[in-house]
Amino acid sequence: MQTLDQLANGFADYLHAARGYSANTIKSYSADIADLLQHLQLQKIESAAEIDLDVLRDWLYAISQRGLAKSSIARKSAAVRSFTAWLQSTSAITTDPGLRLKSPKADRPLPKVVAKDSLAEIFDYLGKAAESGAPEAIRDQLVFELLYATGARVSEIVGLNLLDVDFGRNIISVMGKGLKQRMVPFGTPAREALERWLAGPRQSLASEPGEQALLINSKGRRLGVRAVYQLVARLLAATPTGATGPHTLRHTAATHLLDGGADLRAVQELLGHASLGTTQIYTHVSVERLRAGYKNAHPRA
């Protein structure tokens, strides 16, 4: 019989091999499962067969007493439900106690959206910097253009290879969550930034002839997520949005598409959301923007 620690490690392997989750996602899941195992240890529970609904509810109550946000409790609960479902699927337990585990609904704040005039100022700044011919400046312009043009996740953008760009159709092929591939279009400004980058600046940074990464750093290696986060945060710091990360550009792209009349399901496909409900939050953003505009403009608002 496997120990609880061994089962937790097996679950992490499953998330990687079968579900295709990223290292960061697996790390988050593992931390939440470790939280549960620590509680089980305090309760002298040593086998998966001893885990029942009462035990899970005790754990849920215990973590709620720490003052955690509802979103954190909801995330931990979801991780544990995935764990117990996997335990049943592998016959480590006969019934899944997590099926009836209820957690508080997470407060879902509206995502931050960068105003169009702020974006215009940033693109103007990046364009002027790129005119210097510095490879890093040209690359930075391309990174920002791609993030906003496609609404792709930062991990998807830095994961792009040269062959993932289809200039004939203005489309990039990205690898999303769960190793799901999708095709995402981009516009003329992003295309021009791509052509400028590939015309010479990328080659000047490449140290390995066989390097396939589209975006590379000053050392000739694939550009990292941290570097993109720092770039976006620096550029947004002077805007009303504040120094937020690349995901804000994903939120912004989705909201601006819907503001412009794009179909909700088309935006869902563009973003790679498994559920339409995830995409619908951007309709709420658009409604809030409409209400704010009405309040500011209508004489009898």
Task: Describe, in plain words, how this protein is organized in 3D.
57% of the residues lie in helices and 4% in strands. It is mainly α and 301 residues long. Strand 2 (171-175) and strand 3 (181-185) form a beta hairpin. It is elongated, with a radius of gyration of 23 Å.
Query: Domains counted in the coordinates: how many?
Result: 2
CATH topology of the largest domain: the name is hpI Integrase, Chain A
Reported CATH architecture of the largest domain? Orthogonal Bundle
Rounded to the nearest angstrom, the distance between the terminal CA atoms is 67 Å
The major pleated sheet works out as:
3 strands, antiparallel
The total count of strands amounts to 3
Shape: elongated
Q: pLDDT average, as an integer?
A: 88
The secondary structure category is mainly alpha
CATH level-1 class of the largest domain: Mainly Alpha
> Order of strands across the biggest sheet?
1-2-3
Short synopsis of the structure:
The protein has 301 residues and is mainly alpha-helical. The protein has 14 helices and three strands.
Helices and strands, with pairings:
Blueprint: H1 4-17, H2 23-42, H3 53-64, H4 70-89, H5 116-130, H6 135-150, H7 154-158, E1 165-166, E2 171-175, E3 181-185, H8 188-198, H9 201-205, H10 225-236, H11 247-259, H12 264-271, H13 276-279, H14 281-297
Antiparallel strand pairs: 1-2, 2-3
Helix pairs in contact: 1-2, 2-4, 5-6, 6-8, 6-11, 11-14
List keywords for this structure.
single chain, 301 residues, mainly alpha, DNA polymerase, domain 1, hpI Integrase, Chain A, 2 domains, 3-stranded antiparallel β-sheet
